[in-house]
Amino acid sequence: MEFIFQIAILIMSVVIHEVSHGYSASMLGDQTARYQGRLTLNPVKHLDFVGSFLVPLVSYMFGGFIFGWARPVPYNPYNLKPGRWSEATVAVAGPASNITVAIIFGLILRIGLVSNPAFIQIVSLIVFINILLAIFNLIPIPPLDGSKILFAVFPNKMLEMRTFFEKYGLILVIFFIFFLWQFIFPVILLLFRLITGFAI
């Protein structure tokens, strides 16, 4: 039952994340996501078998927590309003949406709007999973959102470096998860405590 709740929360959280990318791109001039019917909270439009089912199952079985992703909402960076920060704005919209969700539900816990232990656990999961998604996606390694923000800071002459990171990004992400994630996880726990007032 706990796994079902976690997978449901994860799916809706990654859907909100991806739809936020799409709306941000739409506001900046690119309607690709709208034309493909991806500006919807209907999970069916966003689910990815590996990221939405297989990876969450494996992470739950071996790590005790749920992690995964949805199909990325497509956008064409060449349709965005001119400016080096346009792509970064689209990228940051996803993690920002997860932080917003975490804060809203975290305040519910902090001010004591729920007292039932089962509801407290569900709301805590919503906060934790959304913080996890936000922090992970802000890591500056392609194809994660943080890389788009980092590349906006890079001068144009460093394009070759961006090409290198994008070529080997998946390998770098896997390396990060196995060897460096242990240094990031305490940050997630700290943010959870700051937002909710509770410790995990």
UniProtKB/TrEMBL annotation:
Similarity-based family: Belongs to the peptidase M50B family.
Cofactor: Zn(2+)
Peptidase M50 domain segment(s): 118-177
Protein's membrane topology: Multi-pass membrane protein
Protein's name according to its UniProt entry: Peptidase M50 domain-containing protein
Pfam families assigned: Peptidase_M50 (PF02163)
Location of the protein in the cell: Cell membrane
GO biological process: proteolysis
GO cellular component entries: plasma membrane
InterPro entries: Metallopeptidase_M50B, Peptidase_M50, Rip2-like
Keyword annotations: Cell membrane, Hydrolase, Membrane, Metal-binding, Metalloprotease, Protease, Transmembrane, Transmembrane helix, Zinc
Entry's transmembrane regions: 6-28, 49-70, 90-111, 118-139, 168-192
Annotated GO MF terms: metal ion binding; metallopeptidase activity
Main location: membrane
